[in-house]
Write a structure and sequence with these properties.
The complex is a heterodimer.
Chain A: E1 4-5, H1 7-21, E2 25-29, H2 33-36, H3 39-44, E3 49-51, H4 56-68, E4 72-78, H5 79-85, H6 87-95, E5 102-106, H7 124-129, E6 135-137, H8 142-154, E7 160-163, E8 169-170, E9 185-188, E10 193-197, H9 202-214, E11 219-223, E12 226-228, H10 232-241, E13 245-252, H11 257-268, E14 273-278, H12 288-294, H13 299-309
Parallel strand pairs in A: 2-3, 2-4, 4-5, 5-7, 6-7, 10-11, 10-13, 13-14
Antiparallel strand pairs in A: 1-8, 6-12, 9-11
Chain B: H1 7-28, H2 33-50, E1 65-68, H3 74-84, H4 124-137, E2 144-149, H5 156-167, E3 173-179, E4 182-183, E5 186-187, H6 188-192, H7 197-203, E6 207-212, H8 216-228, E7 234-239, H9 262-288
Parallel strand pairs in B: 1-2, 2-3, 3-7, 6-7
Antiparallel strand pairs in B: 4-5
Classes of the chains: A alpha/beta, B alpha/beta.
């Protein structure tokens, strides 16, 4: 059986590892360190860990102040809080001044499950993507999370949003994989159509592609792990080489991956696009897999949308 | 600009800064003169007497920092930064102009010497705490100064930051409330009262002081006392007058975001100069006695 690892777990481990490597790495959390997994860093480096309590707005401002002094702050909490709750602080104290803060949103999407709609961020990518200066990272598995974390500490300058999931998802990449900024990856070649997915939906897109293969439909699967800046070269290539695109995301179909792909391709190389995602509605409490079934975040839904393109 | 503790000199600088504020906002026909004038003497004391800073070493990690959380008082900061040599004084003529370095609210990437971008109220104290935490981590002995407005104290984030500074014992934070009791829609006590403001800060774990925001010597001696107190952040409640120094602007709510016309500017500058020379004479008498 495939190993299931939550991306938040990979985040916690990478943060602690990179904390050892770079003394300027600082972690902040808003009383969710055990959930976001920043607690591991907190245990190893208590002098560089700031639990700010349940005050996300103050956390973002404090992270901004730390960044002005050369620190590399990772400010983590649930994605609903790190994006919507503290949006003005992210905008005015971090993004506008281009400060080196890494905003981490764990528990993104319906995969959050039982906590229900109040805790399921389905608009965070749309919000963060709309901010000038912001880069948006959505790892598809634990290996990619780890590699993106390397990039965020060792190379990247500027504000970043990292979207993570609560529940375990299959490990898709082998350990040699190295993330490249702004580059999507083709996980499966295909000639009829392209499934463009991100985050926790990438492995489901791969399942859909396998099923389509059995019906002699060749589906390419692309992982967009940098929602911004978007790999438009790769998307144009897919638009040129296949008959259409299905976007697949655990996020509202408005403004996230679907929005980004449709905006760029309608300008650069118009093609048919179908969207799989949360259909502009809030979620509810339930087991993650049950919610995925109920809200159409499934291989079956991807397959039916794919067939509409052919 | 040489650092000085000479009160007469500081008063003279405050007069010049007030004239700058009125000149630049009148020229721009835009900006916030009232709250700039109430904050002038505190900011003059900080940059001309208290803070360790040097335009030749702008990014010095050991420098003291200042966060103007009430970012709409930017004209005061711009005046003092230009006088300190961070950028040419001629830039003051381009306040709020397209392509200019002096934005309506402070921008740390556009304006040399600005330590933090501010403007959306309630956010500066959190940033000041972050700078102070970094100072503690790096075992540096710089001080972070922060100026918030009394109307701004209605923002919830101010009180989140108040808890953070006390919890982490940030004794390298010295903050001021510019307590002029006026905000855009009226008096602070009418719109959303903040009293008892001293008790509030005390209850949040801060060491508090009260000063006359326009008495340079009181401001300086209070900062000296504040620096000596260890183990907790310090809040100086500065009782100020909005529009201070220009009689027809003082305590007039309308001058929060309204600028002067040319005739008003002439009257205002003349009043500031007259009062300053009178003040200088009084000081001279005091010295000679």
């Amino acid at each position: 059986m495939t190993e299931l690892v939550p991306t938040r777990k990979a985040y916690g481990e990478a943060l602690a590892r990179l904390g050892k490597e770079n003394q300027n790495v600082v972690a902040l959390d808003a009383d969710l360190a055990c959930s976001t997994k920043s607690i591991q860093f907190g245990k190893e480096f208590p002098e560089r860990f700031i639990n700010i309590g349940i005050s996300e707005q103050d956390m973002m401002g404090t992270a901004a102040g730390l960044a002005t002094c050369g620190k590399i702050p990772f400010a983590s909490t649930f994605a609903v809080f790190s994006t919507a709750r503290a949006l003005d602080q992210v905008r005015n104290s971090i993004c506008y001044p281009k400060l080196n803060v890494r905003i981490v949103g764990s528990h993104a999407g319906l995969l959050t499950g039982e906590d229900g709609a109040s805790h399921q961020a389905i608009e965070d990518m749309a919000i963060m993507r709309a901010l000038p200066n912001m880069s948006v990272f959505v790892p598809a598995d634990s290996v990619e999370t780890n590699s993106i974390m390397d990039f965020l500490v060792r190379e990247f300058k500027g504000p970043a949003y990292l979207r993570l999931s609560r529940k375990g998802t299959p490990v898709l990449y082998d350990s040699n994989y190295r993330y490249k900024y702004g580059k999507g990856t083709i996980l499966k070649e295909g000639t009829d159509l392209t499934l463009v997915a991100c985050g926790s939906m990438v492995h489901i897109a791969l399942q859909a592609a396998e099923t389509l293969q059995k019906e002699n439909i060749s589906a390419r699967v692309v992982n967009i792990s940098t929602l911004k800046p978007l790999d438009t070269d790769l998307l144009v290539r897919c638009a040129n080489e296949t008959k259409g695109i299905v976007t697949v995301e655990d996020h509202n179909i408005i403004g996230g991956l679907a929005g980004a792909v449709a905006e760029s391709l309608s300008e650069l190389r118009p093609t048919k696009i179908k969207r799989v995602g949360v259909m502009d509605t809030y979620g509810e409490s339930g087991k993650p897999n049950e919610l995925y079934q109920k809200y159409g975040l499934t291989a079956e839904k991807i397959i039916s949308k794919a067939k509409e393109l052919l | 600009m040489m650092k000085t503790n000479d009160i007469k000199t500081l008063q003279q600088i405050s007069c010049e800064v007030r004239k700058d504020v009125l000149n630049m906002t009148t020229k721009a026909q835009s900006g916030h003169p009232g709250g700039s004038l109430s904050a002038t003497d505190i900011i003059v004391c900080l940059y001309c007497s208290v803070m360790e800073h040097d335009p030749a070493k702008m990014m010095d990690p050991d420098r003291d920092r200042f966060v103007l959380s009430k970012g709409h008082a930017a004209p005061v900061l711009y005046s003092i930064l230009s006088r300190a040599g961070y950028f040419p004084k001629t830039e003051l003529n381009n306040l709020r102009q397209v392509g200019g370095m002096l934005q309506g609210h402070p921008d740390m990437n556009k304006t040399p010497g600005v330590d933090m971008s501010t403007g959306s109220l309630g956010q500066g104290l959190s940033a000041a705490n972050g700078m102070a935490l970094a100072g503690k981590m790096d075992k540096k002995d710089y001080t972070v100064y922060c100026l918030i407005g009394d109307g701004e104290s209605q923002e919830g984030q101010i009180w989140e930051a108040a808890m953070t500074a006390a919890h982490y014992k940030l004794d390298n934070v010295i903050a001021f409330v510019d307590n002029n009791n006026l905000q855009i829609d009226g008096s602070v006590s009418d719109v959303m009262g903040i009293e008892p403001v001293v008790d509030k800060w005390k209850a949040f774990g801060w060491h508090t002081f009260e000063v006359d925001a326009h008495n340079h010597s009181e401001i300086l001696s209070t900062i000296t006392q504040a620096k000596a107190i260890k183990g907790k952040p310090k809040m100086i409640i500065a009782r100020s007058t909005k529009g201070k120094g220009v009689s027809f602007m003082e305590n007039v709510c309308g001058f929060h975001g309204k600028t002067l016309d040319d005739a008003q500017l002439r009257d205002a500058v003349s009043e500031l100069e007259t009062n300053n020379s009178l003040g200088a004479e009084i000081n001279a008498e005091e010295v000679s006695q």
